[in-house]
Queue: 2 jobs
Job 1
Amino acid sequence: MVTISDIAAALGVTPSTVSRALSGSPRVKEETRIAVERMAAELGYERNIVASNLRKGRSDIVGIIVPRIHREFFSNVIGGAESILEAAGYCVLICQTHERFEAEVKALRTLRNNQVAGVLLSHAIGSDNGDHIREALGDRIPLVQFDRVFSDLPGAKVVSNNFEGAYAATKHLVEQGYRRIGTLAGYMNSEAYVARLEGYRQALRDCGREVDESVVFIDTIVPETGHEACLKALDAGCDALYSAGDFSALGAIEAARSRGLRIPADFGIVGTANESFTALMTPSMSSLALNPFEMGRQAARAFLSGEEGTIVVPMELKVRESSSRMHQQNQT
Amino acid sequence: MVTISDIAAALGVTPSTVSRALSGSPRVKEETRIAVERMAAELGYERNIVASNLRKGRSDIVGIIVPRIHREFFSNVIGGAESILEAAGYCVLICQTHERFEAEVKALRTLRNNQVAGVLLSHAIGSDNGDHIREALGDRIPLVQFDRVFSDLPGAKVVSNNFEGAYAATKHLVEQGYRRIGTLAGYMNSEAYVARLEGYRQALRDCGREVDESVVFIDTIVPETGHEACLKALDAGCDALYSAGDFSALGAIEAARSRGLRIPADFGIVGTANESFTALMTPSMSSLALNPFEMGRQAARAFLSGEEGTIVVPMELKVRESSSRMHQQNQT
DNA sequence: AGGAATAATACAAACGTTTGTACAAAGTTC
DNA sequence: GAACTTTGTACAAACGTTTGTATTATTCCT
């Protein structure tokens, strides 16, 4: 491996001059800089990033911690973040938590020990506060949270307008003429789900419906729990559900069908996340779309700019067959 | 930050002893090791990985280069690899190429400059040979290729049994009574697609059909190109297609429907990759399933073991509605 | 031209770890 | 008990870069 010392020796200057020349310091003469650059190219020099990082105390790596990389939402966030960070000269280190608190702690430690320049994080369901995050990162490593955020942590946050989105989805179900609308609410230690639940409640109130907590089903996130909760909802007289996730909605649809109900005539549902299968299944599933790619981009930009605010990325209600009782044709 | 020197000072030993104690060298007394470990814990010491990497000349980072992280196949490979590597104490640096040669070169350089311990790679469509890979990695950084491999490069390779899989898929279409079976063959600079095409051809021959190259459509990989190619295939009298990708198959189904054909009665299709939407759409799409998670695991294991062979991960034909003309009920 | 101000470079110390070699103390052998 | 091995530590250099300070060369002014 050729080092700056090799270049320095070849040119009869010192390594420090070479270093400054290569990093464009104004303290080296234009002429010298050109000579250094030419020699570097000739010798095939490439900066040893590890040594550079050691000296500078930080790296050009940005860590991203997500529950599961193969979830469509998260892989798109990562894709969006990467597109910005890569252009800014950073690279991306991915860690998965599999929704487990311990894995999140370990990932944070790994990133800190690698002296990452920053961390983009969507916390595990298993974490119910951000103390471990604050402790692991200290105040030297900037943090940007996205989607699932702890609002008491410092740093930028990128979220969807969950309240407004769930509000719109619920109102849509009301407008479609469904009588009794329950919700599959997800995990209550995530503020995103809490906000969606609030949006659901507010929409019902604003439409003159009463909010019946007996048809609010929490901890529903996978098809199995969605299925189970839907059966209870049907028993409680529901003819529609707003689901805070698409996978639980999938389970709910199965459940409704197992009772012989027609969708959307007898039973309506709107999911959340706009997973790609929602548009392709039959009946196609209405879903409250997140914008993961844009969230990733915003998170990366927030890291780069160092600004601390909360960025809201709007959601969009995709009305499809599963909730279109009134022959609306605004299918997406 | 507390360093080994701090520990050494606190204990009245030297940093070298602390270093050896912490890495479990037999050259330090059990007693000393315990004292060091206790003091390290007390002071909250954590090894500076960057410094360690610099000294050792390599890091505990494994780079993974994929065309697109948000493609289900690749994100699952990454998930599989990560599950093995994480347990072995490595972490994972992800780079995307977006199918572009230049981006692949840049990613390789980034990884090399970060002194990664190894690289797992599925090359971009835009790369038609592996010279840049060999050059970038030299013989110091081990390479494991998966899915899309250049067979002339050294190092382990993890592939699907593309030939046998495509053979089975094509034979299945024959057995379902389709008369004229074309193929959407994908990109011919990827050996995986070449092998699938060969499997398709061999199956037809073995079934006593003649291979008609005019219904072999290459460079079909997205819905749009699949759609277009399918129209041509229909014009050429095809009543079935084996598609080397699911997305092109999706476009093909649209195309067949646009001609008023019923699926699978008038037109049959089998895709490849078993993307999650294939099972959920209507009619559900038969697909030749890859096993990306397992491929990722195998690639990671190959890196860890350092063995050089080719590992074949079997594909599985998922027969669903889009090719089930004969009332077979082996739906998955 | 002599001195001050400025520009360009050299020097040297870090960053925190690992590891080859040297060294001292303890244990073994005859 | 002297010579020799074994065991445990200390010493010091190295990994390649960055950066504060010192030094030399150049320019500018009166």
Job 2
Amino acid sequence: MDMNERKLKILEAIIRDYIETGDPVGSRTISKKYDLGVSSATIRNEMSDLEELGLIVQPHTSAGRIPSDKGYRMYVDGMMKRCHITPEVEEVITNLIKEKINRVDTLVEETAKLVAMLTNCATIAMTPPISQVRIKHIQLVPVDDYSVACVVVTDTNSVKNYVIPTPKAIDFNMCMALTNILNESIKGSTLSQISLNQLKYSIEEKMKEYGDIAGSVLQAIDNTLKQEDSPEIYIRGANNILDFNGMDDKDKTRTLLKLFEEKPYLSKILDQSKPNTVTIRIGEENVLTPMKDYSVVSTSYRIGEHAIGNIGIIGPTRMDYDQVVSVLEYVSYHITNMLKELGH
Amino acid sequence: MDMNERKLKILEAIIRDYIETGDPVGSRTISKKYDLGVSSATIRNEMSDLEELGLIVQPHTSAGRIPSDKGYRMYVDGMMKRCHITPEVEEVITNLIKEKINRVDTLVEETAKLVAMLTNCATIAMTPPISQVRIKHIQLVPVDDYSVACVVVTDTNSVKNYVIPTPKAIDFNMCMALTNILNESIKGSTLSQISLNQLKYSIEEKMKEYGDIAGSVLQAIDNTLKQEDSPEIYIRGANNILDFNGMDDKDKTRTLLKLFEEKPYLSKILDQSKPNTVTIRIGEENVLTPMKDYSVVSTSYRIGEHAIGNIGIIGPTRMDYDQVVSVLEYVSYHITNMLKELGH
DNA sequence: GTTAGCACTCACTAAACCCGAGTGCTAACT
DNA sequence: AGTTAGCACTCGGGTTTAGTGAGTGCTAAC
């Protein structure tokens, strides 16, 4: 048995209707609401085939059909339509980006909020990890005898700081000296391009008067930056998960809420997305077990050439894929665009 | 009609039992489980009085009684007992504090997590606002022509940065010059003690060669610091709110979840707490409307003399007040203690 | 003032029941 | 061969009914 034009149409009708209403959809509904020119009996036969193909399932005998993960997959691969972004939304987005353009962190945070509002899904957004963005300025500031703050200004105009324990006492003058040398060496590059360790010898050379301290401080900085290369992660619209499960399932809701407090896990969820496209993982397609009950749709935006941030949503497998994908595409496209100049 | 010894005992029994079981408690239960030496009929009469006094209520005829807000109030005011912190918990707390002592931010975050775990309530914790902590070092770093980053190292060894738009172009040398002067003036003080505006004239004097730029930059810094004087706020154990309402009430749960994404609101919740004590607001006692369905228990910890951070929990009015108060007291006492040296 | 006894209330549960949406199958029709 | 009408059957969900038991309030006796 094979797919044919009519089967596809019926599948699409089932999915559209189910996404809209949330009720299992029966043959009669389709023959009435969607104009296929055949009777419900014929549709019934086709539906029986679709079920055999694993594209739809029956929650129980004598109920209508609902799409399976595989059915949704076929839908998003072939039948999904981009949907229209209303002018009002468009305006909100552009304003948002314009206003916040100087603060990438808050821009991303606000974007997450917006996407959550538009999609009714829990939205995760993260800034690029520090190692991927170009560094405009780096500054060491003494904190106490055995620690310095390393302040990094990126070309996205966000400022990060790291408190770094140093192996040896370090004073203000030395901070300044090291700051100067560091800036000369790495200004305009990303940390993933330049390994601080490579600089070690040349810097020890230049800072002879401080002995081997400079080198070991550098080492400490390198370690900390590598360890704490974690981006900012925002989650917004968490309340939407209350509608995902048939409310019976408090345990699943709880599990999600707990995960939302684990930043490393959130970044794992978004890691799945590939650059320049919207990635959709439906139900069982998800690698991470707790996500197997949901769909994850994610994409990325770029800042300049290298820096890549992610944004994505978690929602029920029964979600309005058309809309979600449209929103994400639109948002990521615009963030990337508006930030283009910053990263050249 | 008046309270007497026996009525108090009965009230206490009702509250203890209800907190433990969650079921409305009847006269028979009390006469069996708690040894008051009188029959259920007598207790019944007393309960009728207690109800008249507004201390307990009946969810419906022919159900047992449950405490009212007023009843809980009488309980926490007079009958609550500190409860024992188990040695294991004690160890966890001390280890936590020892490990994280250098990073006040993460210390507070981890503490919130711990408290959430121990109390099964949603826990909010916040660091002191920057204006309250002593400043160890302040550093201006150029970001682009029209903005500088102001990096503030506090005597709690946490580092904050603020990106500040400047009215006029500002270069590296000027940053350094201003940095030096600022440090001389405000090192060791808190921003609430010293108004940057006071410094304006003396600084313009010292930096004559830059014209009035220094003054206006200072102004900009002052503005930003005042505006963004917001502390870090952490919320942990949000999932616990799923157990607060009788699951029927999805709306209330949703409202809470939404609020948890509004940092200013969270800080408002904790603002209610008075220094050096554990503050308890039961149900209707809360000023903030959405909190009127819950109890908020909060306290503060100190860093040095001035800096005050808050930590508190939101839970159902039916919560184990004994335990919650004990945990909060213990935790705040220990944070304050361990951080004492830092803030002298 | 305390207690035993008793009638009454009412939420909650389970069982019985009905309804309707939906299916699958068969037989007839094109 | 594909399509359709007709029909028996299934089963989830809602409604009704009855029963149960925890708990109260009142009264009368101790």
